[in-house]
Structure prediction request, 411 residues.
Amino acid sequence: MNLALPDAATTTPVRCPHFGPCGGCTSLDLPYADELRAKEEKLQTAFSRHAVLAKAPFLPILGATEPLLYRNSIKVPFGWSATGPVAGFFERRSHKIVDLTTCLIQHPKLTQVLLATKEIVAELKIAIHDARTGRGMLRHLVARIGEGTGEVLAGLVVQAKGYGKIRGLALKLMERLSGDGLVGVVQNIHADDEDHAILGPETVPLAGRAYLDEVSDGLKLRTSLQSFMQVNSAQARVLYGEVLRMLSGSLVDDGPGEGSRIDLAGQKIVDLFCGVGPIALRLARAGAQVAGVEYSEDAVRSARFAAKANGLADRLAFHAGDAAQLLEKLAEGNTIDAVVVDPPRRGLSERLVKSLLASPAKKIVYVSCDPFTFARDLELLAAGFEVAAVRPVDLFPRTLHLEAVALLQRR
Ligand SMILES: C[S@@+](CC[C@H](N)C(=O)[O-])C[C@H]1O[C@@H](n2cnc3c(N)ncnc32)[C@H](O)[C@@H]1O
Prediction:
């Protein structure tokens, strides 16, 4: 198989003082080309378990030109050591926190927010939550950067509202870092120690804004900390370009970045699991009429904002709700040329597979972040659709995670 090799300078292993125990990344010690090859093999292994996918045509992986310092979002727990607060990723297969001083995969501005937060937590003697005793307030720091705007948004995940020192921490962070792009600090309330999700149900602003603006491929986007966005902005652009290329029927392997020149005028496309709208907006800009569907109302609000902000509101409608239910509604008496699906790791529900098979769509573009549920769902969809192309895209360099996209055509 051919390999889209990145620049030679980025293929050499690099050193991080935390590499080994730290669970933040896994492959810093490998040349990048080997990592890409292993990812292609992982996808092929997942497909090889399903006889019906034996002839699926694989396109070469699209590797990152910059496989370091790319993560645009962090979610790290706080803990306590003999010398003061610690914060960082968990050690592999453990709940011991690696006290990060640097990180070679996350954006440097996020490391800066992490280190500043830790210092202020020590200065203000903020009580860190301990799930064993139920005492203490601060649980996690979450933060995100919009790479196209440089805006940073931080969130403090706390046990309960109304702890004055948390507001003090937010104000000090703004004082120190607003010159470096910090536009706001929110608090997220997460009181349930049995719930292992990082974010709890309620988020309220503490200082500055509760959202950040981003610009990607010339499109304005808006997001909060609760909504999903791909963690690698540069490779997300490559992935979205591939989605458009597959929809346009142009499978020529002429490298990434062609998405913005593709013409989808007159096409009616449903974008399921649309998040804050990065795919739907690109489809509408290429001329398609698009219905986006997303469970999170917060993300749908951001997507509707972006539709207006980009002058594309007449070609876009966003609906909040379940993908399968809404696809069934949208299919009633309407033409649908194609459907894009980009589900969470668990893949498609049985009901959604049935709705896709029963829909009038002639094409499906399936974006997946889990090769095994991806292959499982493609086998189920093979009852009505043939896999015309599969392309891995490296969205998570230096880790084992793998993103891939497939074009399915009605048999
Ligand atoms: C992998 S993300 C993809 C988001 C978007 N396509 C992007 O590239 O940013 C999956 C999204 O599906 C949403 N979601 C999860 N379950 C859903 C469901 N049953 N129906 C609709 N959306 C759902 C999540 O809230 C999340 O925004």
User: Anything to note?
Assistant: The chain has a mean pLDDT of 93. The pocket of S-adenosylmethionine is lined by residues 228-230, 273-275, 278-279, 293-296, 299, 322-323, 342-344 (CB under 6 Å).
